[in-house]
Design brief:
The protein is mainly alpha-helical. 67% of the residues lie in helices and 0% in strands.
Length: 219
């Protein structure tokens, strides 16, 4: 099964994201605190799957550039700045706050906060960028998506991918803006690494904001 995932251009880009997303559905379903250990579980599985497919997903290479860092910072500011100024598509159903569940400063609270920061900053960016910006964006254009260069702009794929990414988040407008910015980086640079970096910067800054401003609603 693993060899099939690794050898398939589609499965190697879809399965890690799908496994992560599937486990997300079970967060909080086995008691309120299950959201914490299931997040840790899906982060571990996501990281493991990324490691397995890395040799076969050639575009999944981090690249630090000033454009990526600037984009990451700007999207972070937009993410927190637009909150509360438009209607949500779904009601927020609580927040990821280990301090409230296990006690502020407790070992478990610190552990799950660290897992969340690591997961959102190191695992989520390559998972989502490979799935959305590399696979979905190009697959919309052609089923044999590997023949489509990352630098090709296709307005329909650009809009559809951005909207799909946006509605997958509570903060859907920020999500759409975020998707457009990251996809623009991919097109401009003809590589995925800058978008992975920008995504990581955004999520890391958001994590710090959540912790220091006690804004766990963003988690």
């Amino acid at each position: 099964m693993l060899k099939k995932v690794q050898s398939s251009p589609v499965l190697s880009r879809v399965v890690p994201f799908a496994a992560f997303a599937l486990l997300t559905l079970f967060q909080g379903q086995f008691g309120e605190n299950s959201q914490y250990w299931i997040y840790a579980l899906k982060t571990g599985i996501g990281a493991w799957l990324l490691w397995l497919v890395r040799p076969y997903v050639m575009e999944m290479r981090w690249k630090i550039s000033w454009e990526a860092v600037v984009a990451g910072v700007v999207i972070f500011l937009i993410w927190i700045g637009l909150d509360g100024f438009y209607p949500m598509l779904a009601k927020r159903t609580g927040s990821f706050d280990p301090n409230a569940a296990y006690g502020a400063g407790s070992a478990l609270a610190l552990f799950f906060i660290a897992v969340r920061i690591a997961g959102s900053s190191l695992v989520v960016p390559p998972l989502e960028e490979v799935f959305y910006r590399s696979f979905i964006y190009r697959y919309i254009q052609k089923s044999d998506f590997l023949k489509i260069p990352l630098s090709r702009f296709h307005w329909k794929a650009f809009l559809i991918t951005g909207i799909i990414f946006g509605i997958a988040h509570y903060e859907w407008i920020q999500g759409i803006i975020c998707a457009f910015a990251y996809q623009g980086l991919v097109i401009r640079k003809n590589r995925l690494g800058d978008a992975i970096c920008a995504h990581a910067v955004t999520n890391f800054l958001l994590g710090l904001y959540v912790i220091f401003r006690n804004a766990y609603i963003f988690w």
